[in-house]
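Usage example:
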Amino acid sequence: MVQFAWLIPMFPLLGFLLIGLLNKRLPVSLSGGIATLMVFLSFIVSAVIFGEVAQDGSVPERVVLFDWISVGDLSIPFSFLIDRLSVIMLMVVTGVGSLIHLYSIGYMHHEQDHPRYFSYLNLFVFFMLLLVLGSNYIVMFVGWEGVGLCSYLLIGFWFKNIDYSNAAKKAFIMNRIGDLGLLLGVFLIYTTFGSVGFREVFESARNFPENSEAITAICLLLFVGAMGKSAQIPLYTWLPDAMAGPTPVSALIHAATMVTAGIYMVVRSNVLYVLSPDASEIVAFVGLATAFFAATIGLKQNDIKKVLAYSTVSQLGYMFVALGVGAYQTALFHVITHAFFKALLFLGAGSVIHAMSGEQDIRRMGGLKKALPITHATFLIGTLAIAGLPPFAGFFSKDEILAKVWEHSPVMFIVLAVTSVLTAVYMLRLYWLTFYGDFRGTENQKHHLHESPATMTMPLVVLAILSTVGGFIGMPEVFHAPHFLNEFLAPVIWKVNHHEASETFEYMLMGISVVLLLLIMFATYNTYVTKKVMPEENDKDLQGFAKLVANKYYVDEIYEAVITKPLNGISSFVYKYIDQGFIDKLVNGTGTSLTGFSGVLRFVQTGNIGGYIFSMVIGIIVILVLTMIL
Amino acid sequence: MITLLLLLVPLVASLVCLMLDQAKVKIFALGTSLVSLGITVYAFTLFNNDIADQFLVNYWWIQELGISFKAGIDGISILLVALTNFLLPLIILTSFRHDYKNASTFYALMLFMQFALIGVFTALDGFLFYIFWELALIPIYLICLMWGGKDSARITLKFFIYTLTGSLLMLAGLIYVYLQTPGAHTFDIDALYNVTLSPVAQSWLFWCFFLAFAIKIPIFPLHTWQPDTYTDAPTQGTMLLSGIMLKMGIYGIIRWMLPIIPQGLSEWGNTAMMLSIAGVVYASCMALVQKDFKRLVAYSSIAHVGLIAAGVFALNLQGLQGAMVQMIAHGVNVVGMFFIIDIIQRRMKTRQLDELGGFANNSPIFTILFMIVLLGSVALPLTNGFVGEFLLLNGVYQYSAWMALVGGLTIILGAVYMLRAYQKVMLGEPHARSVEFTGLHQTEKIVLVAIAAVIIVTGIYPKPIIHVAGPAIEDILAHVKDIY
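Running the assembly step on the lines above writes:
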């Protein structure tokens, strides 16, 4: 079956072409159905292959489709790698992907332009599958840029709104900054190892010494790519803006799959990162900073999707910390659980927005618990999962990250622990403000409140179940239960730095986090439900740190002032005064003097062409004369 | 024989055009350009990759001076011939909805241009090459002058002076090399390749050739004729210039510069590389602040060809292969882009980005095709632009990582100015005047679909292009490597 792996991306590609080409000729209700079916078919094939790979042991299989770019000793086949890492990613992408496609049918019901939406969504899945299937860095890069394109197209789906298309443009450009880094990293890989294939590169890398300059440079350049795609400091500001897209898009692309591509790439390249502790330290540091800063911003956001967006940035930071300390399996563990609970939260938010006739501001919500029972219950599960309450999925992966970081550096551990407290605070604030208290919207909205249709609630329920039990694939050591994920991934991770954490520490960690979480729940309930403290209506009323945070540390404004404005200003200046001024005047000066000269010629010749042929004749005479002399 | 046919069909057709009336000339021009395309396809089927200079024709022309009419096709030539003969029918099709005055002259000049271009790409005699090089200038000059915008007299004069200066320098260089050939002097390319030139001579010869080719491409800072000329010329003139004619410069470097003065290159190559790379960033920044869509694409074209030139000056297999792939890709994409601008301009009577917007509503097909051409020009993987840009940057990276970093900025800046243009034209609320933007006509659809198809097909399967050029490029590099 493995040799049929090409079917997996083929289905969504087919869906894209079918829906895209038939477009309006397709019955309105059909495009969503086709798109969902295609992703579901991919899911089935993935599941079969997953089963085979899980049984068959560890032999990675390469499926070559055709020879793509081959020049001299550089050979880039268009080929797929089926190993334990790629099959896990396949399951997540096609599984969560199918659910979100299904949900979209309900969510986009009132929208025009179904075919465009679903064809883009299928195209996205196609590229995402290429990204995780590619057996070399270039095929991965195809997927990498392709998902960026789909992200651009879907963020700007409502193209009449210029703010939305600005957000789309920003996402694409920031990703491209990362992509340049990634591409340079690939060039360096090629010059260092003479190949860009995963297998060849990692095999020869194993003979390199630790912290060699080349490998550290490669790791850092690849990481620049990851910063763009996975929204890490300093390239994270596109992700919150990307919330302009339809909510299912935010769930699929900007939470569950595309933004985790950076983590996938580092896990894939773990051999290189193991060899460069220096680069790994930087990865951990950037991840830590991102996790913390994004969490603080999340505290003061009032748009339901923006809170989730900053939370995504923060959670991605968590994963990079795990990667930086060498806990590759743990990072992937969090990718999986995060895909479940964050997709759940976004889809839940979508259900709320749907019910509220497009309202996204949590200050205008409240008391939605009754009207939206399924949405409420599932959203609660998602909130508890991300906050880290056992036995929900987030608890296990987050706890494992904290434990691994403790072994690496207690200081990092403390910052990360504070971040988890912040996470619990902003998520519970969001939860209470949305579902408890009195309804604060308009009469019209109140009248219109309704639970979403089954196509939307069913994915919510499935994801809620996954967010509840998903953590059991990686039980903590102290429980003496098997850690399925670690065992499964063992063949694709080169070196596992395995320290036996002390049992007391693990129990303490769990105990403290549960107690803390309960305290936070109580405190936030007290603030937002009992005392009915509302976020300020106007950011201008804020003071000091709160103001700084609510304005996202003015990072967008700083980028605007430091990069965008100077670039445009200098370019305008150069265009006006140098390109059109100096260089051109210089030439025109010669031109004017020559015009005078040709004016003289015009006595004997007529017009420019005559002058031209005249000069050619002179040219030929010159040759004749020269040959005679010499 | 095939080489002669490729040359004679457009030449004869061009003369016939002059005798036809306005109504018939369009169809006739299109027909003959399709015949040329057919011959090119036939040539491809006969082409044997491993043999240099196929379909050779060789007659004495001025025997006393060692000038012969020698022309033939190798893996490099055939790609550029194919590009020319593929684009010509499309360019002629784009003119179908225009009613140019003196149409017979217009089409005659276009076909004459095709003749000269094929001559440039197949000539294997230095003097013959020079003649074709100059012949190619005359029709495009007249097209720009007679059918150009208001300011065409001044602008074409500038263009003319620039290129003429360049060609005279090249002529001087060629004659000097010719005079160094042993025995009875000859312009035969094989003799020129084997001339021994002193390092000093190579040093100044470098500048003769470089200036000639750099002006044509154009390489920064010799580019200022280009935006004016591209903007002012009629659409078909701009397409001929940007799609095909500028490749004469790159081709000239590969065919007539690298093998003849390798030492000159080792001395000045770094300067040329730096100018090329500087041009990439410079022109991209200029494109950022353009308000006229056509001028924006003109600057973006300078950036793209700057990178192609850099790939050539990297003097390695990947750089040169990338240059070949990207020459084809750029030719196709830029013609598509200028046609898109033409489509917009004829409907809206303006190209100013600030006066456009919201067309995505009016024509979904146009929206998709515009997007595909745009993706090709910003080098998204699985489009033709990526294959070329990837190989070019990889080639430049082997030369110098820093150059690749600076040149690679085109990846970012290209996205910035192209997406800005796309947003200004297609997105946003529909204008009051947007209703004037009607859907595509049949001929417009044919051209854009053909271009979009090439963009995607050669992006997914570039192997034939890479494969056909390989041996010829290795031959060229062998001449360079002898010296090092």
